[in-house]
Amino acid sequence: MDEIPRLDKKKVHVTSLDDIGEEREYWLSRSASERIEAIEINRRMVYGQDRVASRLQRFLEIAELS
Q: Is there a contact between 22 and 15 (Cβ–Cβ < 8 Å)?
């Protein structure tokens, strides 16, 4: 999953934010791996590919005691 998929605007369904029943049924019908993959795609879309692949900066050093 290196590439972020493009949004197909022909398949977007717009509903009210208060209507969560249909959305809940959809996500509960998906497997756990499909849900995690969707979260990862959303995270990459929001934060970008570079931000996702970056690592934490090292802030500790090992000092040898004499």
A: yes
HSE, CB side, 13 Å, CA atoms: give it for residue 35: 10
Write the DSSP assignment of 30-64 as a string of letters. Answer: S-HHHHHHHHHHHHHHHH-HHHHH--PPP------
Cα-based angle 5, 2, 33 (whole degrees, multiple of 5) = 75
pLDDT tens string, the chain, 66 residues long: the values are 567 777 777 877 777 878 788 888 889 999 999 999 998 888 887 777 766 555 666 677 778 887
